[in-house]
Amino acid sequence: MALAQRGHAVQRAREFSRETSLHFRLPALLLPASLAGPADTESLPEELAGIAVFLPNEETTTLAEAAAAEAARTDARRQEVESIQSEINDRVYAAYGFGPADRAAIQQFYAAPSSSDEEEADEDEEDDSLAAGSPADTAFALWQWLMGAAFGRWDVRLALHPEQLPAPAGPFEALPAAPPGALRRPGSGKLVTNPSELVSEQDAEMGVTTPDYAVPVAWDGLLPLDADHPHDIVRQLRLLLTTLRPGTAAALETESRTLLASPRADLTGWLSEWLAKGGAGGFFARHLATYSRSKREAPLYWPLQAPGTSYVLWLYAPRLSRETLYAAINDYLEPRRTRARDELRQLTELLGGPAPANAREARQQEQRRELLTQLVAGLTQFIDHLSGVLENTGFQPHPDDGAVISACMLAELFALPAWRRKLEQHRAKLHAGDYDWSHLAHGLYPQRVREKARLDRSIAIAHGLEDLYEGPMTNLAGAAVEVEEEAENN
């Protein structure tokens, strides 16, 4: 039992810095070495202590050091798991009296290729927790976590005080509903969705309403890539990094620029350019790959971009609702378009006067006018698209529909070509009736879904319309179920 429990603890520790795992705690750079392995209470008995492999415990300050330390830990965990498996095999062989010939036959049997080898290989390739990341992967994981923290997904307090991380779940405990690193209400397991939940229920009852939280959070699920806006996402991410690593924030950003963009990129503007980049190499392309597995794609942070411009409004998918889109228009897009129109009008008036003596200045003013014209046009398309979606009162996003269906009505606002095409394809299928099991389809086409529920029991169950079902009743195995006819019994 001790060997199995230790093996589970070592395997689980491989997930502590993988954001898509339910065991996720903190990214590699922010996770102290003392919390990167099994707990002290999960050590092996003294007689088996020789099996345990020493984990590096040096703290890291750079992304390269964090990547190297994680690689060393990954190798140490692999060695220990192999040793544990070997010890368990030896004990089983001894218990059943298997001799050398029997052992060799068993090993030969499992070494032979099987029909499932290809599927298992694919699963191993998809499991990014099995291999240590490069410095670039470590850098991306840090910025991806920072974005999640800015939206209230991850708890910044745990990065500042890692000792407050909850104890890892045991092998026989139910998996948590959310990772240990998630932002939860103090004293409960409930995920925080608004600032009032940053204080415990007991404190709230005592009149405490001001939460003790180190950084601002975008509770509306929206952050603009707009240097002139007080909630500019670049400003928020840099504030977070400085709060967590005040002495090394500048060095970490310089290192990140080299790893994620280019050492020649402008240190001031590289982060904005990287976040706005719609193709390969940008933040979203990598985030999409991180949150994709087994052909299921579920990105959390969506860059909605004004067509033909670099203006991006980042949306946190779990907050998507009709109210979110109204807030996007009223609180971000309309004010930005108004500012752009005012500046364009002033610049047009300026260009209508005497020409600047400096030809370079005149050229810059003309280029600025072209950019502002494009920005106004792009923001107008952005607003018109969201308004068109909202005109249909049946548009009611639901998290159970998944990211692809939830985002398909916004396809034109994504700059990543492959993702936009996928959304357009799924939107066509949604309109054609292929996804009538989804909440969105029920909202957009209620009559069609109700008609289908009359003959398709799965659709009826999905939407709570079983009273409409008129087809044969079957059990879960598909066998017919006899239904008593009350009329005959009366």
TrEMBL record:
Compositionally biased residues, Acidic residues:
116-129
Region Disordered, as annotated, extends over 112-132
Protein's recorded name:
Type II restriction endonuclease subunit M
Q: Which organism is it from?
A: Hymenobacter humi
